[in-house]
Amino acid sequence: MSIFCIGRNYVAHAHELGNEVPTSPVIFMKPSTAVLAEGKNFTIPSFTNDLHYEGELVLRVSKEGKNLKGPNVLDYCDAITVGIDFTARDLQNKLKEKGLPWEKAKAFDDSAILGKWTPLTSKIVENPIRFSLHKNGTIVQDGDSSLMIFPLATILESLTEYFTIYPGDLIYTGTPVGVGPTHKGDVFEGYFEANQVFSVKVNP
Ligand code: ZN
C-alpha cells in the first residue's frame, strides 16, 4: 500500500510557512508503516522539538490507474476521510535548507492518522467539502476543499502521471491554514463535515 501526500495545496497555508504557492502539485510519500493503528495513542518522537499537526482530507483508491485524465478520475477512489500528517517541522526546515528529502520529518512511524471512511459519492465530489481538526476541544483548522489550489481530480491526474495507483492506496490531499505545535497529552479530533471520524490522544 502506498501513501501519497500533497504539500502546499492551500494558499493561506503555503504563506503561513513562508513557502511559494506551487504551480503543480508538490508530492511526497510515506511508507505503510506510517499509519497509526486504530485505537492506539500517538507518541511524539524523540528526534523533534517542534512536532506540527496537519489535518487533511484523505482519499482511498479503489481501482488501479495510470495517466488518468478527464471528468471521471474520482471514480478511482471509493472513500474519503480526515487524517493528520504529523510533521517534525524543525527537522523538515533543516532538511529543506539543505535541499534534502523530507522523509525523516514526514514519513516516520505513526505519522499518519486516519479517520473512519465515508463513501465517496458524486454528491460529495460535486460540492465543497468542509472538514476540521480540533485540539483539546478547540477548533484549530477549519478546512474547505473549494480552497484547494489543486482540486481532488487534479491531484489524481497529476499523481498518476508519475505513479500507478492501486486499491488501498491513500492520498493525503494537503493541509489548510492553521497548522501548529503538538504537545504531550493533547487530544486531536477530526471531523468530516459534522461527523467526528477520529479521536487520537498524544501520550503524556
Ligand atoms: Zn501535509
Tell me the name of the CATH class. Alpha Beta
- Per the CATH scheme, the topology name is Fumarylacetoacetate hydrolase, domain 2
Bound molecules: zinc ion
End-to-end separation in angstroms reads: 31 Å
- Radius of gyration equals 16 Å
- Our count of helices gives 5
Written as H for each helix and E for each strand, in order along the chain, the element string is: EHEEEEEHHEEHEEHEEEE
CATH 4th-level superfamily: Fumarylacetoacetase-like, C-terminal domain
Number of domains: 1
β-strand number: 14
Determine the mean pLDDT: 97
The biggest sheet amounts to:
7 strands, mixed
Outline, from the CA principal axes? globular
Low-confidence stretches: none
What is the SS-derived class?
A: alpha+beta
Describe this structure in words.
By secondary structure, the protein is an alpha+beta fold. The chain is 17% helix and 33% strand. The protein has one domain: Fumarylacetoacetase-like, C-terminal domain (Fumarylacetoacetate hydrolase, domain 2). The strands form 3 sheets. Strands 1, 2, 4, 5, 7, 8 and 11 form a 7-stranded mixed β-sheet that branches. A 4-stranded antiparallel β-sheet has the order 10-9-13-14, with no helix packed on it. Strand 9 and strand 10 form a beta hairpin. The chain is globular, with a radius of gyration of 16 Å. The two termini are 31 Å apart.
